Amino acid sequence: MNQAVRQMPEPGGTDGLAGGVSIAAVEAYFDEALPLYRLLGLRLTALAPGRAEVRLQPTPQVVRPGGGVAGPVMFAMVDVGLYAAIFTLRGILPMAVTSDLGMHFLRAARSPEILCLTEITKAGRRLAYADARLLDRDGRLVARASGSYALPTEGGTAAP
Predict the structure, then answer these.
(1) Of the candidates 75, 79, 17, which has an alpha carbon nearest to the alpha carbon of residue 46?
(2) Res. 154: pLDDT tops 50
């Protein structure tokens, strides 16, 4: 990975993260509550306050005709990254849900590894907003996205 692109701390760090949040804790939660995460072959490789890094080494199951990673898989990378980035600020929130997610595909993702860098741009009481960049192994931008998550109220449910 191009060092100029990498803006996240090395994997495993928990400095400044909400209580109990670590890569291991988030992945254990995803294993239990979001099995699609492992089925797609996604890996959470770094966390920092308001940021998450998700990687994919594409297998034939996630590649579309023409050799690029399928759009829904890249969409899932962004969604998972946004979810994990929220956890770094608020702890693991099972009832946080996607409220909006838009994506722009810029080139075919034909790389042995795809990286999704997600950053929370604003976190309020009821909504969190984020931007994401998906890069190939050479650091070329293949897609960009922005979205929001509805955060649970004190009763534990997501905002309507």
Answers:
(1) 17
(2) yes
Percentage of the chain modeled with pLDDT above 90: 78
Residue whose pair of structure tokens reads 């009763």 in the numeric block:
155
d(CA 99, CA 114): 25
Q: How far apart are CA 36 and CA 74, in angstroms?
A: 13
Query: Are β-strands 51-56 and 114-123 bridged in parallel, bridged antiparallel, or unpaired?
Result: antiparallel
Phi-psi bin for 85: left (phi > 0), alpha (psi -120 to 50), beta? alpha
pTM of model > 0.70:
yes
The answer to whether the beta carbons of residues 156 and 93 sit under 8 Å apart is no
Nearest by Cα to 151 from 99, 103, 102: 99
What's the pLDDT tens digit per position in 50-107?
999 999 999 999 999 999 999 999 999 999 999 999 999 999 989 999 999 999 999 9
Integer angstrom CA distances of residue 63 from 24, 101, 136, 149: 27, 22, 14, 27
